[in-house]
Specification:
- The complex is a heterodimer of chains A (330) and B (289).
- Chain A is mostly helical and 330 residues long.
- Chain A contains 15 helices and no strands.
- By secondary structure, chain B is mainly α.
- Chain B has one domain.
- Chain B starts with a helix and ends in a 13-residue tail after the last helix.
- The chains are: A mainly alpha (330), B mainly alpha (289).
Amino acid sequence: MSAFFAAARERVPKGPDLIVLVVIWTLLVSVPFWLPLLGGYTALASKVLVFGLAAMGLNILLGFTGVLSFGHAAYFGLGAYGAGLTLRYLVHSTPLAMLAGTLFGGLAGTLFGMLIVRRRGVYFAMCTIAFGQLWYYLAYSWNDFTGGFDGLRDFHREPIGFGRFTFDITQGETRFYFFLLAIFAAAVAVMGLLLRSPFGRTLVAIRENERRARFLGIPVERHIWLSFSISCFIAALAGTLYALLNNFADPLTLHYSLSGYFVVMTVTGGMRTFWGPLVGAALFVLLQDYISSMTVNWMFFIGVMFILVVLFFPRGLLGMRRQTRSAGKA
Amino acid sequence: MWQVVLFNVTNGLIIGAFYVLMALGLSLILNLSNVINFAHGNFLALGGYLAYTLSPALGYWGALLVSPLLTALLGVAVERLMIRRIYNRDPVYSLLLTFGLAFVIQDACRYIWGPNGLPMGLPDMLAQPITPTLFFITWYRVFMVTIVIVTVVGLFAFLRHTRVGLRIRAGTFDLETVATLGVNVRNLRTFNFAVGCLLAGLSGVLAAGQIGLNPNMGDDLLMPSFIAIIVGGVGSLIGTLCGGLLIGMAAALTTVFYPSASEAVIYAILMAVLLLRPRGLLGEEGMFS
């Protein structure tokens, strides 16, 4: 544990990294004040935070371990359903709902990860897609319990705290945005510390050369499994926030298209960078919102965007910066 | 009772036949190019729509022949223009590319042919039931299963007995060596992708006669096809064949006793295979692991 914090202290950001950090946090904190002026609405920023968190969670696996999951919507959706079902059937408590949803999605991912951890590459991806769809069909067909195709309704987020210390997040978009931002900040801090710890460095070593990592005596399977599990927990946490944001959970949050969106957010922003997925999420959410207000054929343009990103911007927005910098050094 | 069972067995056979055609195409592309073609279901829809557009001019039989070939040509264009560029990159890019392609083709179909379902006309002789007692077995169903059997046998004969087929099978195991022996691997992959799209286009024409046309008609077939490949074992085409028939039959027989679990049983098979035999029923140990 002390090595964990020592490693964290060693890598206090400086130079360009510090600038990125300052810019991102300034934007995140100030967004409710200027976005409405530009014609946006705060819920859009909340959506960016939630999707960004899920994509950053996915990136632990995709960008930092080099393992491709194309089924993370399943854990996101399980988190959303876990929170929604808890609020609807069990207790009217926001923190407990978040806990239940995160545990539900995270544990499902952890158990499934155990089954597929020996698979690699596209085969691993295919297993994650197929398993993800299982939950989609379950939510879709278990009508009485989950609301079926119409989604789970009749629940809403509850005020947090008790007595005098109650923080009412049920009203006011801006207030709820700052609640999301606080959770986001905590989750991001944990992810950042994890990735800078020896554990995180080991993941990168596995990504760079799995065989060499194995020869060094690193238990590769266990690390990939842990990385998969952690990224599922983060995705599930983001899912609970999504359910709270909309007071609604629908089966499309479990569908593999959303998994694809998470991957494209990560790649667009830069999958070898820490903040890339958030930038990608912002770009994706804004673009989707804009295009779908312009034309019914928005899927066509989103699809074209996928293709263009793959063919011409494979390193992503923040990845390009990194590349030019390291090219300058060499 | 026996009629209900027989009805569902024929249904299972037909659904299984579609899974097999889809999954064989996907499997061919996956084995040689290491690409999961998310747009495969959309090539299927394209095949169906092309047949719909062509059949007034060429008649049903002409359309049945020509539209799979056109789908294959489109496949060649897609492979040459896009997919070829990403063979040497991380698999995430090929998945994203075909995923985006699926969106593009689906919305293009919706734009060109409209969002509502379209019926596909069949020749009169195919639309008749065989006998009044077995009213659910139309000649069309017999015809479909026959076509699928002929196609599958043809595909396996092609892979076994022709030079190109041999190269495709060899490339599945070691593409580098095949390239070193002087085979033009680029063309081989293009050809192989086209064969995969041909199978998708053919299943599209056949499916159109059974369920009609709509822009996302291939989506429901895509996921079971993935599962058929995993269950059968990645790298083995015979395995894919068995996997497709197995899950088609299992889903249909479950429908007899407990209709709402027919999807779930497919996933139950998937989990059982991943738990007990991770390489799949006929998969080679060490491939993709």
